[in-house]
Amino acid sequence: MIQKSHITQFQYAAQHKPNQLIYGSGQTAIITGWTVKQAIAKHLQTSDYAVIGQLYSPTRGINLLIRNLLLNPHVRYLVIINATKEDRNAGASQCLLDFFNSGVEENISDTGRKSWVIRSQIPGYIDIEIDINALEKLRQSLEVVEAKSISEAVEKIQFYAQKPTIEPWGTPLEFPMLTIEPTVLPGTRYGHRIEGKTIAETWVKIIHRIKTTGTIRPTGYDGKWQELIDLMAVVTEEPEDFYFPEPNYLPIDRSFLTEYISQVLDDAPSREGVKYTYGQRLRSWFGKDQIEQVVDKLIGEIDAASAVMTLWDVKDHEKGGSPCLNHIWLRVVDNELSLTATLRSNDMFAAWPANAMGLRALQKHIRDQINQRSEYDLRMGPLMTISQSAHIYDDTWSNAEQLIKQQYAAVCRKLDYADPAGNFLIEVANGEIVVTHTTPGSGEIVGCYSGKNALKLVREICTASPAIRPDHAAYLGMELQKAVDCIKIDKPYVQDQ
Ligand SMILES: O=c1ccn([C@H]2C[C@H](O)[C@@H](COP(=O)(O)O)O2)c(=O)[nH]1
To answer: What InterPro entries is this protein classified in (predicted)?
Structure first.
Protein backbone atom coordinates (compact mmCIF):
# COMPACT_ATOMS: atom_id res chain seq x y z
CA MET A 1 0.00 0.00 0.00
CA ILE A 2 1.34 3.46 -0.88
CA GLN A 3 1.08 5.74 2.12
CA LYS A 4 -0.12 9.26 1.46
CA SER A 5 1.30 12.03 3.57
CA HIS A 6 -1.01 14.40 5.34
CA ILE A 7 -0.84 17.62 3.32
CA THR A 8 0.30 20.62 5.32
CA GLN A 9 1.60 24.00 4.21
CA PHE A 10 3.83 25.36 6.87
CA GLN A 11 6.77 27.52 5.90
CA TYR A 12 10.04 27.17 7.77
CA ALA A 13 11.72 30.54 8.27
CA ALA A 14 15.44 30.12 9.01
CA GLN A 15 17.36 33.10 10.31
CA HIS A 16 20.61 31.17 10.62
CA LYS A 17 22.31 29.23 7.79
CA PRO A 18 19.26 29.68 5.49
CA ASN A 19 21.10 28.49 2.39
CA GLN A 20 22.27 25.27 4.01
CA LEU A 21 18.79 23.83 4.53
CA ILE A 22 16.26 21.90 2.47
CA TYR A 23 12.74 23.23 3.05
CA GLY A 24 9.43 21.40 3.18
CA SER A 25 5.92 22.21 4.36
CA GLY A 26 5.43 19.64 7.15
CA GLN A 27 5.99 19.61 10.91
CA THR A 28 9.12 17.46 11.29
CA ALA A 29 12.63 18.89 11.43
CA ILE A 30 15.25 16.38 10.32
CA ILE A 31 18.76 16.69 11.68
CA THR A 32 21.04 14.54 9.56
CA GLY A 33 24.34 14.97 11.43
CA TRP A 34 27.20 14.17 9.02
CA THR A 35 24.99 12.20 6.63
CA VAL A 36 24.46 14.40 3.55
CA LYS A 37 20.99 15.89 3.69
CA GLN A 38 20.15 15.04 0.07
CA ALA A 39 20.53 11.34 0.92
CA ILE A 40 17.42 11.66 3.15
CA ALA A 41 15.53 14.19 1.03
CA LYS A 42 15.47 11.92 -2.00
CA HIS A 43 13.36 9.35 -0.11
CA LEU A 44 10.73 11.91 0.97
CA GLN A 45 8.07 14.28 -0.31
CA THR A 46 8.43 17.92 0.73
CA SER A 47 5.17 17.70 2.68
CA ASP A 48 6.77 15.04 4.91
CA TYR A 49 9.12 17.48 6.60
CA ALA A 50 9.54 21.09 7.71
CA VAL A 51 13.26 21.28 7.12
CA ILE A 52 16.33 19.09 6.63
CA GLY A 53 19.73 20.23 7.82
CA GLN A 54 23.10 18.85 8.80
CA LEU A 55 24.58 19.29 12.25
CA TYR A 56 28.32 18.87 12.39
CA SER A 57 29.43 20.26 15.72
CA PRO A 58 27.80 20.52 19.15
CA THR A 59 29.70 23.66 20.07
CA ARG A 60 29.06 25.44 16.77
CA GLY A 61 25.78 24.13 15.45
CA ILE A 62 23.29 23.49 18.25
CA ASN A 63 22.89 27.12 19.30
CA LEU A 64 21.87 28.22 15.78
CA LEU A 65 19.59 25.22 15.33
CA ILE A 66 17.79 25.99 18.61
CA ARG A 67 17.41 29.63 17.57
CA ASN A 68 15.84 28.52 14.26
CA LEU A 69 13.50 26.07 16.03
CA LEU A 70 12.32 28.83 18.41
CA LEU A 71 11.38 30.86 15.32
CA ASN A 72 9.33 27.96 13.91
CA PRO A 73 6.84 26.76 16.50
CA HIS A 74 4.98 24.73 13.87
CA VAL A 75 7.81 22.17 14.10
CA ARG A 76 6.48 19.53 16.50
CA TYR A 77 8.67 16.53 15.66
CA LEU A 78 12.42 16.15 15.50
CA VAL A 79 14.17 13.21 13.88
CA ILE A 80 17.84 13.18 14.80
CA ILE A 81 20.08 10.94 12.71
CA ASN A 82 23.04 9.50 14.55
CA ALA A 83 24.32 7.05 11.96
CA THR A 84 27.94 7.49 10.99
CA LYS A 85 31.39 7.25 12.56
CA GLU A 86 31.69 11.01 12.08
CA ASP A 87 28.48 11.53 14.10
CA ARG A 88 29.89 9.50 16.95
CA ASN A 89 33.21 11.36 16.78
CA ALA A 90 31.64 14.81 16.73
CA GLY A 91 28.91 13.97 19.26
CA ALA A 92 26.57 16.70 17.96
CA SER A 93 23.53 14.43 17.45
CA GLN A 94 24.06 12.90 20.89
CA CYS A 95 24.43 16.31 22.53
CA LEU A 96 21.23 17.53 20.86
CA LEU A 97 19.38 14.44 22.13
CA ASP A 98 20.77 15.20 25.61
CA PHE A 99 19.42 18.74 25.37
CA PHE A 100 15.90 17.42 24.83
CA ASN A 101 16.27 14.67 27.45
CA SER A 102 18.13 16.49 30.21
CA GLY A 103 18.04 20.25 29.52
CA VAL A 104 20.65 22.88 30.38
CA GLU A 105 22.28 24.60 33.31
CA GLU A 106 23.89 28.00 33.61
CA ASN A 107 27.67 27.70 33.41
CA ILE A 108 30.74 28.90 31.51
CA SER A 109 31.43 27.89 27.89
CA ASP A 110 34.80 26.83 26.45
CA THR A 111 35.41 30.46 25.49
CA GLY A 112 34.76 31.64 29.03
CA ARG A 113 31.35 33.11 28.25
CA LYS A 114 28.34 32.68 30.55
CA SER A 115 26.08 30.22 28.64
CA TRP A 116 23.42 27.58 28.92
CA VAL A 117 25.49 24.42 29.03
CA ILE A 118 23.72 21.27 27.85
CA ARG A 119 23.57 18.51 30.49
CA SER A 120 25.62 16.07 28.45
CA GLN A 121 29.00 14.32 28.45
CA ILE A 122 29.65 16.24 25.22
CA PRO A 123 30.25 20.02 25.51
CA GLY A 124 27.41 21.94 23.87
CA TYR A 125 26.34 25.53 24.49
CA ILE A 126 23.32 27.76 23.94
CA ASP A 127 23.49 31.56 24.21
CA ILE A 128 22.56 32.91 27.63
CA GLU A 129 20.52 35.64 25.86
CA ILE A 130 17.87 33.00 25.13
CA ASP A 131 15.18 32.93 27.82
CA ILE A 132 15.30 29.69 29.82
CA ASN A 133 11.48 29.48 29.75
CA ALA A 134 11.58 29.45 25.95
CA LEU A 135 14.14 26.63 26.02
CA GLU A 136 12.01 24.64 28.45
CA LYS A 137 8.90 25.23 26.34
CA LEU A 138 10.73 23.99 23.26
CA ARG A 139 11.91 20.86 25.07
CA GLN A 140 8.41 20.05 26.24
CA SER A 141 6.69 20.78 22.94
CA LEU A 142 8.71 18.65 20.52
CA GLU A 143 8.56 14.92 20.15
CA VAL A 144 12.15 13.85 19.58
CA VAL A 145 13.40 10.58 18.19
CA GLU A 146 16.81 9.21 17.24
CA ALA A 147 17.44 7.24 14.04
CA LYS A 148 20.49 5.03 13.58
CA SER A 149 20.22 4.71 9.80
CA ILE A 150 18.73 6.44 6.76
CA SER A 151 15.97 3.82 6.42
CA GLU A 152 15.00 4.05 10.10
CA ALA A 153 14.86 7.86 9.76
CA VAL A 154 12.67 7.69 6.64
CA GLU A 155 10.28 5.29 8.39
CA LYS A 156 9.94 7.60 11.41
CA ILE A 157 9.50 10.74 9.29
CA GLN A 158 6.77 9.09 7.25
CA PHE A 159 5.08 7.90 10.44
CA TYR A 160 4.87 11.50 11.73
CA ALA A 161 3.77 12.75 8.31
CA GLN A 162 0.63 10.57 8.55
CA LYS A 163 -0.48 12.24 11.76
CA PRO A 164 -3.07 15.02 11.69
CA THR A 165 -1.75 18.57 11.78
CA ILE A 166 -1.05 19.91 15.28
CA GLU A 167 -1.20 23.52 16.35
CA PRO A 168 2.11 25.38 16.69
CA TRP A 169 3.30 25.33 20.30
CA GLY A 170 3.40 29.14 20.48
CA THR A 171 4.41 32.23 18.56
CA PRO A 172 7.84 32.59 16.89
CA LEU A 173 10.50 33.69 19.39
CA GLU A 174 13.65 35.63 18.61
CA PHE A 175 16.45 36.59 21.01
CA PRO A 176 19.34 39.06 20.65
CA MET A 177 22.65 37.79 19.39
CA LEU A 178 26.07 39.16 20.31
CA THR A 179 28.33 39.82 17.32
CA ILE A 180 31.86 41.14 17.59
CA GLU A 181 33.76 42.37 14.51
CA PRO A 182 37.45 41.63 14.98
CA THR A 183 40.13 44.28 14.47
CA VAL A 184 42.35 43.29 11.56
CA LEU A 185 45.99 44.36 11.52
CA PRO A 186 47.72 45.19 8.24
CA GLY A 187 49.62 42.34 6.58
CA THR A 188 50.18 40.45 3.34
CA ARG A 189 47.21 38.55 2.00
CA TYR A 190 48.99 36.03 -0.25
CA GLY A 191 51.76 33.61 0.66
CA HIS A 192 52.70 32.89 4.27
CA ARG A 193 55.25 30.57 5.82
CA ILE A 194 54.75 29.40 9.38
CA GLU A 195 57.10 26.96 11.03
CA GLY A 196 56.94 25.05 14.29
CA LYS A 197 58.41 21.95 15.85
CA THR A 198 55.09 20.25 16.59
CA ILE A 199 51.66 20.37 15.00
CA ALA A 200 50.28 21.90 18.21
CA GLU A 201 52.84 24.72 18.26
CA THR A 202 52.49 25.40 14.52
CA TRP A 203 48.70 25.47 14.88
CA VAL A 204 48.80 28.19 17.55
CA LYS A 205 51.02 30.33 15.27
CA ILE A 206 48.72 29.73 12.28
CA ILE A 207 45.65 30.75 14.26
CA HIS A 208 47.41 33.87 15.48
CA ARG A 209 48.50 34.86 11.93
CA ILE A 210 45.05 34.41 10.40
CA LYS A 211 43.16 35.90 13.33
CA THR A 212 45.32 39.04 13.40
CA THR A 213 45.84 39.71 9.66
CA GLY A 214 43.30 37.57 7.78
CA THR A 215 40.80 39.26 5.47
CA ILE A 216 37.18 39.05 6.62
CA ARG A 217 35.08 37.64 3.79
CA PRO A 218 31.76 35.94 3.27
CA THR A 219 31.95 32.13 3.16
CA GLY A 220 29.88 29.89 0.95
CA TYR A 221 27.95 28.94 4.10
CA ASP A 222 25.89 31.92 5.23
CA GLY A 223 28.52 33.40 7.44
CA LYS A 224 31.94 34.99 7.44
CA TRP A 225 35.46 33.76 7.78
CA GLN A 226 38.85 35.35 8.25
CA GLU A 227 41.18 34.16 5.52
CA LEU A 228 44.72 34.17 4.17
CA ILE A 229 45.59 32.76 0.78
CA ASP A 230 48.39 30.20 0.40
CA LEU A 231 49.54 29.52 3.89
CA MET A 232 52.41 27.07 4.12
CA ALA A 233 52.87 25.32 7.45
CA VAL A 234 56.18 23.57 8.09
CA VAL A 235 56.24 21.11 10.98
CA THR A 236 59.78 19.96 11.67
CA GLU A 237 59.77 17.61 14.64
CA GLU A 238 56.36 16.11 15.32
CA PRO A 239 57.15 12.97 17.35
CA GLU A 240 56.12 9.62 15.85
CA ASP A 241 53.48 8.99 18.53
CA PHE A 242 52.18 12.60 18.21
CA TYR A 243 52.40 15.41 20.70
CA PHE A 244 49.24 16.32 22.57
CA PRO A 245 49.70 19.25 24.97
CA GLU A 246 48.73 18.90 28.64
CA PRO A 247 46.02 20.03 29.13
CA ASN A 248 45.06 19.32 25.55
CA TYR A 249 44.09 22.57 23.78
CA LEU A 250 43.84 20.92 20.34
CA PRO A 251 40.37 20.32 18.86
CA ILE A 252 41.13 16.57 18.65
CA ASP A 253 42.28 13.85 21.02
CA ARG A 254 43.99 10.48 20.61
CA SER A 255 40.83 8.43 20.22
CA PHE A 256 39.51 10.71 17.46
CA LEU A 257 42.92 10.58 15.79
CA THR A 258 42.93 6.77 15.62
CA GLU A 259 39.65 6.84 13.68
CA TYR A 260 40.81 9.72 11.51
CA ILE A 261 44.10 8.05 10.54
CA SER A 262 42.13 5.09 9.28
CA GLN A 263 40.08 7.47 7.09
CA VAL A 264 43.34 8.68 5.51
CA LEU A 265 45.23 5.40 5.20
CA ASP A 266 42.57 2.75 4.55
CA ASP A 267 40.32 2.11 1.62
CA ALA A 268 36.59 2.45 2.31
CA PRO A 269 33.59 1.22 0.34
CA SER A 270 31.18 3.88 -1.00
CA ARG A 271 28.22 4.35 1.36
CA GLU A 272 24.95 6.22 0.88
CA GLY A 273 25.10 9.62 2.55
CA VAL A 274 28.93 9.60 2.95
CA LYS A 275 30.74 11.70 0.32
CA TYR A 276 34.21 10.15 0.19
CA THR A 277 37.14 9.40 2.42
CA TYR A 278 40.73 10.36 1.68
CA GLY A 279 41.76 6.70 2.06
CA GLN A 280 39.28 5.72 -0.64
CA ARG A 281 40.62 8.36 -3.01
CA LEU A 282 44.22 7.24 -2.38
CA ARG A 283 43.68 3.49 -2.44
CA SER A 284 41.04 2.72 -5.05
CA TRP A 285 39.18 5.67 -6.61
CA PHE A 286 41.33 5.85 -9.73
CA GLY A 287 41.72 2.05 -9.98
CA LYS A 288 45.25 2.15 -8.51
CA ASP A 289 46.59 2.09 -4.99
CA GLN A 290 48.51 5.38 -5.08
CA ILE A 291 50.19 4.81 -1.71
CA GLU A 292 51.72 1.58 -3.02
CA GLN A 293 52.67 3.43 -6.20
CA VAL A 294 54.71 6.09 -4.41
CA VAL A 295 56.42 3.51 -2.19
CA ASP A 296 57.46 1.54 -5.29
CA LYS A 297 58.43 4.71 -7.13
CA LEU A 298 60.81 5.88 -4.40
CA ILE A 299 62.32 2.45 -3.82
CA GLY A 300 63.11 2.30 -7.53
CA GLU A 301 64.26 5.92 -7.82
CA ILE A 302 65.02 7.49 -4.47
CA ASP A 303 65.67 10.95 -5.99
CA ALA A 304 62.38 10.99 -7.91
CA ALA A 305 60.53 14.31 -7.95
CA SER A 306 57.41 12.56 -9.21
CA ALA A 307 56.27 10.64 -6.12
CA VAL A 308 52.87 12.32 -6.19
CA MET A 309 49.35 11.23 -5.30
CA THR A 310 46.20 12.97 -6.41
CA LEU A 311 42.83 13.10 -4.67
CA TRP A 312 41.27 15.56 -7.08
CA ASP A 313 39.12 14.03 -9.79
CA VAL A 314 38.25 16.30 -12.72
CA LYS A 315 34.67 15.05 -12.31
CA ASP A 316 34.61 16.73 -8.90
CA HIS A 317 33.46 19.93 -10.59
CA GLU A 318 30.23 18.21 -11.55
CA LYS A 319 29.11 17.56 -7.95
CA GLY A 320 29.41 19.55 -4.73
CA GLY A 321 31.53 18.28 -1.87
CA SER A 322 34.88 17.79 -3.55
CA PRO A 323 37.85 16.77 -1.40
CA CYS A 324 39.69 19.55 0.39
CA LEU A 325 42.95 17.63 0.29
CA ASN A 326 44.11 17.59 -3.31
CA HIS A 327 47.70 16.54 -3.89
CA ILE A 328 50.42 14.90 -1.83
CA TRP A 329 54.11 14.79 -2.71
CA LEU A 330 56.86 12.72 -1.09
CA ARG A 331 60.50 13.65 -1.45
CA VAL A 332 63.76 12.21 -0.18
CA VAL A 333 66.59 14.64 0.53
CA ASP A 334 69.64 13.67 2.61
CA ASN A 335 68.01 10.40 3.65
CA GLU A 336 65.02 12.27 5.00
CA LEU A 337 61.46 11.73 3.72
CA SER A 338 59.35 14.90 3.61
CA LEU A 339 55.68 15.14 2.71
CA THR A 340 53.98 18.15 1.13
CA ALA A 341 50.20 18.38 0.76
CA THR A 342 48.00 20.98 -0.89
CA LEU A 343 44.50 21.70 0.38
CA ARG A 344 42.16 23.81 -1.73
CA SER A 345 40.23 24.95 1.31
CA ASN A 346 41.16 24.47 4.95
CA ASP A 347 39.31 25.19 8.17
CA MET A 348 42.45 26.00 10.14
CA PHE A 349 40.77 26.11 13.51
CA ALA A 350 38.65 22.96 13.50
CA ALA A 351 40.20 20.75 10.83
CA TRP A 352 43.89 21.52 10.28
CA PRO A 353 45.27 19.69 13.34
CA ALA A 354 43.49 16.47 12.26
CA ASN A 355 44.52 17.01 8.61
CA ALA A 356 48.15 17.51 9.68
CA MET A 357 48.21 14.49 11.99
CA GLY A 358 46.53 12.28 9.37
CA LEU A 359 49.15 13.36 6.81
CA ARG A 360 51.96 12.79 9.29
CA ALA A 361 50.64 9.23 9.83
CA LEU A 362 50.64 8.74 6.06
CA GLN A 363 54.20 10.05 5.83
CA LYS A 364 55.32 7.62 8.55
CA HIS A 365 53.50 4.73 6.86
CA ILE A 366 55.29 5.43 3.57
CA ARG A 367 58.66 5.83 5.33
CA ASP A 368 58.16 2.50 7.16
CA GLN A 369 57.10 0.70 3.97
CA ILE A 370 60.17 1.97 2.10
CA ASN A 371 62.50 0.98 4.94
CA GLN A 372 60.94 -2.48 5.28
CA ARG A 373 61.00 -3.29 1.60
CA SER A 374 64.42 -1.87 0.67
CA GLU A 375 67.92 -1.21 1.92
CA TYR A 376 67.07 2.41 2.67
CA ASP A 377 66.93 3.63 6.23
CA LEU A 378 65.02 6.90 5.84
CA ARG A 379 64.37 9.36 8.65
CA MET A 380 61.19 11.38 9.01
CA GLY A 381 61.63 14.79 7.41
CA PRO A 382 59.28 17.76 7.80
CA LEU A 383 55.58 17.80 7.05
CA MET A 384 54.37 20.69 4.92
CA THR A 385 50.82 21.70 4.18
CA ILE A 386 49.89 24.43 1.74
CA SER A 387 46.38 25.69 2.32
CA GLN A 388 45.04 27.77 -0.57
CA SER A 389 42.16 29.21 1.44
CA ALA A 390 43.35 29.11 5.05
CA HIS A 391 40.38 30.29 7.06
CA ILE A 392 38.76 30.53 10.47
CA TYR A 393 34.93 30.56 10.51
CA ASP A 394 33.21 33.35 12.47
CA ASP A 395 31.57 30.84 14.81
CA THR A 396 35.01 29.85 16.13
CA TRP A 397 36.50 33.37 16.33
CA SER A 398 36.06 33.57 20.07
CA ASN A 399 37.62 30.11 20.52
CA ALA A 400 40.53 31.25 18.34
CA GLU A 401 40.98 34.41 20.42
CA GLN A 402 40.89 32.38 23.61
CA LEU A 403 43.58 30.05 22.22
CA ILE A 404 45.81 32.99 21.28
CA LYS A 405 45.37 34.55 24.71
CA GLN A 406 46.22 31.33 26.51
CA GLN A 407 48.93 29.79 24.30
CA TYR A 408 50.55 32.21 21.85
CA ALA A 409 52.98 33.88 24.27
CA ALA A 410 54.12 30.51 25.62
CA VAL A 411 54.66 29.14 22.11
CA CYS A 412 56.71 32.21 21.12
CA ARG A 413 58.85 31.91 24.25
CA LYS A 414 59.94 28.47 22.99
CA LEU A 415 61.61 30.12 19.99
CA ASP A 416 65.20 28.95 19.79
CA TYR A 417 67.83 31.44 18.82
CA ALA A 418 69.35 29.51 15.91
CA ASP A 419 68.28 31.32 12.73
CA PRO A 420 68.45 29.04 9.67
CA ALA A 421 69.64 32.14 7.75
CA GLY A 422 72.91 31.94 9.72
CA ASN A 423 74.86 34.08 12.18
CA PHE A 424 76.37 37.57 11.80
CA LEU A 425 79.52 38.38 13.75
CA ILE A 426 80.03 42.11 14.28
CA GLU A 427 83.43 43.66 14.91
CA VAL A 428 85.02 47.09 14.63
CA ALA A 429 88.32 47.37 12.72
CA ASN A 430 90.11 50.55 11.57
CA GLY A 431 87.15 52.76 12.44
CA GLU A 432 84.73 50.65 10.39
CA ILE A 433 82.13 47.99 11.17
CA VAL A 434 82.87 44.54 9.75
CA VAL A 435 80.08 41.94 9.65
CA THR A 436 80.92 38.30 8.89
CA HIS A 437 78.09 36.02 7.82
CA THR A 438 78.53 32.36 8.88
CA THR A 439 76.43 29.23 8.40
CA PRO A 440 74.47 27.89 11.37
CA GLY A 441 76.17 24.94 13.01
CA SER A 442 79.48 24.59 11.15
CA GLY A 443 80.24 28.32 11.22
CA GLU A 444 81.62 28.45 7.66
CA ILE A 445 82.12 32.01 6.38
CA VAL A 446 79.73 32.80 3.53
CA GLY A 447 79.70 36.58 3.35
CA CYS A 448 81.24 39.81 4.57
CA TYR A 449 79.90 43.38 4.86
CA SER A 450 81.62 46.55 5.98
CA GLY A 451 80.76 50.23 6.42
CA LYS A 452 79.99 52.99 8.90
CA ASN A 453 76.25 53.38 8.47
CA ALA A 454 74.14 50.94 10.59
CA LEU A 455 70.94 51.30 8.54
CA LYS A 456 72.76 50.83 5.24
CA LEU A 457 74.43 47.68 6.56
CA VAL A 458 71.15 46.20 7.87
CA ARG A 459 69.54 46.83 4.50
CA GLU A 460 72.43 45.17 2.67
CA ILE A 461 72.26 42.13 4.97
CA CYS A 462 68.48 41.80 4.65
CA THR A 463 68.64 42.13 0.87
CA ALA A 464 71.30 39.44 0.63
CA SER A 465 69.59 37.12 3.16
CA PRO A 466 65.88 37.90 2.85
CA ALA A 467 64.89 34.80 4.87
CA ILE A 468 66.50 36.29 8.01
CA ARG A 469 64.12 36.14 10.97
CA PRO A 470 62.55 39.50 11.85
CA ASP A 471 63.74 39.36 15.46
CA HIS A 472 67.26 38.59 14.22
CA ALA A 473 67.20 41.59 11.84
CA ALA A 474 66.01 43.85 14.66
CA TYR A 475 68.80 42.57 16.92
CA LEU A 476 71.38 43.27 14.17
CA GLY A 477 70.03 46.80 13.80
CA MET A 478 70.52 47.48 17.49
CA GLU A 479 74.00 45.96 17.60
CA LEU A 480 75.15 47.83 14.50
CA GLN A 481 73.94 51.12 15.97
CA LYS A 482 75.80 50.30 19.19
CA ALA A 483 78.96 49.70 17.09
CA VAL A 484 78.48 53.09 15.36
CA ASP A 485 78.13 54.82 18.75
CA CYS A 486 81.33 53.12 19.98
CA ILE A 487 83.25 54.28 16.91
CA LYS A 488 82.02 57.87 17.53
CA ILE A 489 83.32 58.01 21.10
CA ASP A 490 86.30 55.80 20.40
CA LYS A 491 85.20 53.03 22.78
CA PRO A 492 85.80 49.31 22.18
CA TYR A 493 82.71 47.50 20.85
CA VAL A 494 81.74 44.01 22.04
CA GLN A 495 78.82 42.21 20.37
CA ASP A 496 76.03 41.17 22.73
CA GLN A 497 75.52 37.43 22.11
O1 LIG B 1 39.80 17.60 5.49
C2 LIG B 1 39.11 18.64 5.49
C3 LIG B 1 37.78 18.67 5.05
C4 LIG B 1 37.11 19.86 5.09
N5 LIG B 1 37.70 20.99 5.53
C6 LIG B 1 36.97 22.29 5.56
C7 LIG B 1 37.39 23.29 4.53
C8 LIG B 1 36.11 24.08 4.33
O9 LIG B 1 35.98 25.02 5.39
C10 LIG B 1 35.02 23.04 4.47
C11 LIG B 1 34.63 22.36 3.17
O12 LIG B 1 33.79 23.19 2.45
P13 LIG B 1 33.71 23.19 0.83
O14 LIG B 1 34.93 23.91 0.33
O15 LIG B 1 33.65 21.76 0.39
O16 LIG B 1 32.45 23.96 0.54
O17 LIG B 1 35.59 22.05 5.34
C18 LIG B 1 39.01 20.97 5.96
O19 LIG B 1 39.57 21.98 6.38
N20 LIG B 1 39.69 19.78 5.92
So the answer is: PterinBD-DUF4346, Thymidate_synth/dCMP_Mease, Thymidate_synth/dCMP_Mease_dom, Thymidate_synth/dCMP_Mease_sf
